[in-house]
Structures
1.
Amino acid sequence: MEQLKEMIRRLDRIATMLYQNDSKSLQTLGAEFQGISNGLLQICRVAQPQVAQELVSALKRLMDAFAQKNVITLADIIRYEIENKLIAITQNATSMNNIDIEINETESSQGESSQVGYSHAESSKVGSSHAESLQAESSQAGSSQSEILQTGASDTECLDVTLKEQYPFNMEHLILNEEYYRGNLDALEEAQGGEIRRIAENYCNAYATEEDDTILMDGNCNIAVHRGDCWCQLNSQYDPEKAAKVWTESMRDINYKSILVVCGISNVEYIRQTLATLGRENLLIVYEPDTNIFALNMLYNRMDDILRDQRCFLFVDDINMDIFVDAFDRLVGYTAMELVKLYALPVYDVLYADKIKAFVTICRKQLDYTALVAQTIVMKNENVISNIIRNLQIVENSSSLLQLKGRFDENERKHIPAIIVAAGPSLDKNIDQLKQAKGKALIIGVDSSMRMLLKHEIMPDLVVTIDPDKERVLFEDERTDTVPIVYCMHSTFDILKKNKSRHILYSNTKYISRLFQAFDKKLGEIDSGGSVANAAFAMASYIGFKNIIMIGQDLAFTNNKKHASVVYAEKGISEEEKDQYEMIEGIDGKPILTYANFRVYRDWYETKIAQNQQIHVIN
């Protein structure tokens, strides 16, 4: 009897780890599986026929779920079928007193796994070997399985029970809850605005009329996703609230300022339980990679409390991911970067691995960008503060980026391209082609490209400068003073004061925008991306140009050159700066040297271009 109780304890520990989505849980189960299955088969030989059949059926489904890495199904089978059945046996233990159960001891029973790092293929092999072991054990017993399972079902029928049979429900069992649905839409609109509500409502209404045989929800809002030849349940069928609590309890090192990023909503119970454990100053950012799961919950489940919670921010593929980067930047500032904790709900990390990986990459790139901007401000803080104060005298007679946007009509934005001229090495070979575009496109030169442009007698339509301490040599030529200049509040004062043309101010921070709004002046706010070329691209995108051409935007070194021939008197690649360099893959697939921060600028471009599919970009 003590061996039986020890088996129950071990099963309970494994089930808890599985509910927590602990990566070691599958390894632990793999290491202990043989001993557990052998012990259960011994129990089957003396248990009631019906109990024996249920245990063998559970074992078979356990192997199926193990092969699919379906942790929630595994946990449910272990805790609510096998474990509870064994507890019932101990409570009626007369028939068990005379049997000695052998449970193989493994390293994992001491809390460590003897098998590490199963791949999907390896876990399938483990499932197969245990299936063979199960049948071999039963055939070696004093009586055959057909003698043990005296319930009218053959041994073949018993062993053919599959995970799919555990999900007989379908969409016909669901009845649209109009009160929930409207409440969810109203809450979504309050949290994220009318446009997001419209997109979500259109998607949900269309989904409600379609038949989806890949995702099922029953009347209790249990959700299962079909993958391969099995159904993977996203939440516990037996006690979803308790399973969600177990998962939230597994979170480590959460303090009152932590920002949690959770991949997946499942049936929203995990999110609800997570919010219940967080404090008033915590933030919860939730990403749902499957729009159909979002639609199911909107249509049939109550989630208005989650959507209205001011600590919770929900982002869903095809619904509002286009605003994620800006929102993430707003929610996670430089000082909060180390407070971010990332989690994936159980099974999501298996079913949606590629999407979650892509999402994590977006988060990482944005954090890199946030760090770069903050480091720049820290390094140049004296110049930044000085310029903001001194530039106030220029602001009074400046136009705004918003006013500049109004100068172009829809037809011009659609048919006239914006050409952004950066100062990378490739500008040397492209500069002559640029002459042909004068008068046919809006030419926007970045400050470091001005000397090269003027040498070739090309006057840009606009010049952009944002650096708080830009080299004055770039503006020595008096012709630069006649070009309209686009700037932000921390741009170099001396350069702005020297310029005699129109000054056009934009905002690159929420603070500056709110400051000017207090005086009834709207500037036009853009994300300047960390470099002046990024800012020029963001400006062209903000104005609404549908065709943007970039010239000299190498973001890498060519023949040890950082810039075009007429920019700075530079020395090229230096040993002193080697810690700032890194090798990346070029457009031809070959490795190329660049600055580490150039990679951040490139990531910024890729994110912005992906967000705005209407823009045709040529580099």
Note: The two ends are 74 Å apart (CA to CA).
2.
Amino acid sequence: MMNPSNSSHTRFFKRHLCLLGVALCMSAATAVLGEGAGPAFLIDASVTEAQPIGNRFSNVSVWSFLGTSADEKMFHEWSEAKPAGWLNKTYPWLEEIQVFIASGGSYLEHPRQAGDTAASEFDRDLFKDPADRTVLDDYDFSALVRACHNMLRQGVKPVLKLHCVPVKYSSQPDIDWFRVNTRPPDDYEVYADYISALVESMVDAFGGPEVSTWRWYVGTEFDNKTWWEAEDETAESTAEEFLKLYDWSVFAVERVLGENCGPIGSHAMMGGRQMWDPEIFFAHCQSGRNFATGKRGTRLDVFAISDYDRAAVDLTSVKESWPELKGSGNVLASLDRHRGGVHIRANANLPGFEKKAELTRKVMEKYGFGGVPIEVSEGGMVYGTDGKWLWHGLAHGGSFDASWTALSFRKMLDQEVALWSRWPIYRTSGLFSGPELAATNAIRLMDRMSGDRRIPVQASGKAASEIVASLSSDRKTVRVLAFNHAPDLENPNPTETLELDLRNVPLEGKVSVTVWRVDEDHADFWPQWEEDRTAYGITDADYYQSRDQPDPAHALLKEEHIDFWKSKDSAYSKLAELEKASVQFHRVEEGQLNLKLEMPCFAVALIEIHEER
């Protein structure tokens, strides 16, 4: 097992060797590029895809409308402290907030039972008294209404994930690993009345025309037993109970908004240790008996999958941090069976994404849902390089996540996946405060391509770097996104000099070539934090969650260290600013332009070529 106390120093040393290599390569590259030393990419702008690239990062998923942990107030006080429209203005690509577990499943005063894997962590059940089983309609949706109001005030729409059943609706509730009730309701009609009342509360607050534009999900990873499981704990009963939940939930939404309401869909792992086969769900939606209406079939307008990587895993460290997770039926036990339970090396390059997307589309097409969009409703990196949780954001703090995010963008385009809803970690404290992350700046660059049409790219020579190219709808701007990602932070790729051969460019004469960069020297404060924390004497032993977590305030143990981190907010915010790295002028002759681009490890760059008149 890796010695965690030396790991960050080793990575620091390797990173600076890599950056030294950048400097050397930049000074020597010109002499050898003509001999074909660097990988080459042919970008022929005469051919483009028919449809625009689209906004692939239009959603953010939140564990609760308050945030990731109970001390946060994301869509209550924090959003209210910002001017109206601040979120949309700051992140113009952000259109929707997917609110996980929006309709209930736990309350803080619910006593932990002998069979519960964990205790409740949020007040999710929307009642005046969630413990009173003698009154089942004492609804109180005010907290959720307030959160939805603040989302709309900030220029984004809520996407409510209706899933976990309120505790008092299940006679035998079970609080599992995700700290919510996994059991079905005793009476689906009572549950449907609750969901209809929730929707009515939104209509009362915001009007029918507005709420009719919202999207809805029923279920989160419905094939995951730690989210949903029948009382007899069999796959057959669990599948049937979810089909009932889905039908009754769709019925409850349509009862208020009508059949012309916004899209309604569901979400499964579509891989891993599934409790039951999601094909059962698609077959039911196509032609199964609807448990709510008695008719055949159920609408399915959108479908989501999950996709997670791990930077590394030291299961011993994880178990020490989370002792309540020991047992046979949880995530850690699954990892134990996966590879012996000691240390799993990094695979942070979305290795199973293509297969998962292809299998999902295949089964959906089989049951007549080939035209239904596929999304990623949750995903990221689960563990840091120290083997500890990356719980706040499920992402890495530095440019490693930026290049990983660019890789996810390319894979979404290849697999025609509509969007990836990341966890809310645009900034170190979520969405509203703290320095921005390198990955946020990478998304900012990719958003510039959303209205463009993709240009096919042909690569020659061995290259770690990848390219996505596009042409604007008015045919006046060519964009080239480059990224150099390696799956293991501790084993970076070498710096590469890319030769870009652009042909049939619909520009002529003088053009401006603007380059934006996101890497350890540009728009990324994280390397400075790594240096500062080392100089201050903060070691791996001072973290209860991963040192790589982008929110150190929710990872460090000592208040002194948290105060030190917070004292750097202004300086790090400045380092995180995205600026143009360079602007040069070239000439396009007969539609051809040749460029060279240095790409360090874990870097993202965007080139914009625009005609100067």
Note: The first strand starts at residue 40 and ends at 44.
